[in-house]
Every structure is written in structure tokens, then in C-alpha cells.
Amino acid sequence: MKTLALCLLLALSIDSAFAAESSWPKMQEFDADFVVRTNAEKIAFIKALYDVKGAARYIFVCRGGSDEYLDRLSGQTNINYVGKLVCTLNEGKGEVEDSLLAEDDVAPWHTRGQYFSFEEVIGDCGNYPEYGRIRHFRLRGFELTLSAVEPVCNKQNQLQSFKLKVSLRRDDKILSKYTEQPGYLTPYKVGRSCKQILKGNARRMCRNWEKGGSYEPCKD
Hints:
single chain, four-stranded antiparallel sheet, 3 helices
């Protein structure tokens, strides 16, 4: 009886795993890129993400530019955009003030899709894992990667432009609804220094709407 019960439990566990794995649409893989000019008035990149059957499942958006442009855009869309550049991922075809690139229940400008400064893609900060030039976002059966490449600097060694490559690769083992934590802590926790690389994961925070939407540690 114990052997039978163990087999049944194992079968249920396997069935649950496959059910979770198959709950997310199987996405088309792709590679795309766009040029980011650091002094641009307007930066905009929008790409629909399709499943293997051709249905649009997500929309990936990067926006940036001058404070004046972002303020005007926020007024037109009722979505807050924070410079220098912020990339988001949403379900469906519409852009909203939310992002699946978040590792917990936070606004897009608190995710690794946010570039507060273009210094994040050069020097020590560019080399910082998952917060610099290369950032991986693992969720829903795929890994989305942002890679800042081909930097162009002026004679004063100031960054003028770079290419941001966006790629998607399927991975059926990734079942998380939101982005998995990367295993590294933000360099901004240590006085905005990128010289010391900190491994680990921060405590995930969630909204408590019973208390007006305040942030509290997630129960899971």
C-alpha cells in the first residue's frame, strides 16, 4: 500500500508539473535590435511577441528620451515613463503601467528593465551581472535577454550610442509567472558602486491592498 501511495503521489506531482508547464503559450523565438542614442529626444521600440501558432501574446516596449518628451508622453497615455530608458513586457497587445519583467509586485522603474543612467552599460557597471550590459529575464517558458552592444564614444570617451539587442529563447523548465530573481543584488544598495559584486536575492515585496496598497514582504 505504501508503494502504491508513493506511486500515486509521484504521478500527481508529475501531472501537476506538466500542467504548469503547458499553461503558458509556447512562444516563437526571435532576435531583434535597435539603436539607442544617448542624447535622443525620443527613444521608442515596440515589438509584439507571438506564440508558435501566430497569436500575439505579449507586447515588449522600450521608451526613453528627454524629460520633456517623457512628461508629454505620460500626459497622453496616463502611464509614467522614467528616464533614461525603461523596457516593459505586458500581456496582450496594449501597453500599461506594469511589467512582467518585475520580480515582485513593483512598478516598471523598479525592475531590471529600467536604465536610470546609460553608465549602466559601460565600465564597471556595464560588467555587473544582470544589472549591466546583459540582463536575462526568465519567465513563462522562455528567457528574454537584453544585451547592450557596439558602444560608440566621443573623443572624451563619453557614450554616444549603443545597440540594444533583444532575444527570446524557449525554456519549458521556466514556470514562473513573473521574472525569476537573478541571484545578484542591485549595485545601488552599496552606494551606487559597481566594483563589488553582491550575490543573493532580495526579499520579494508585494502590495497589500487591504492597507491601501502598501508594500510588504510577499507571503511566499
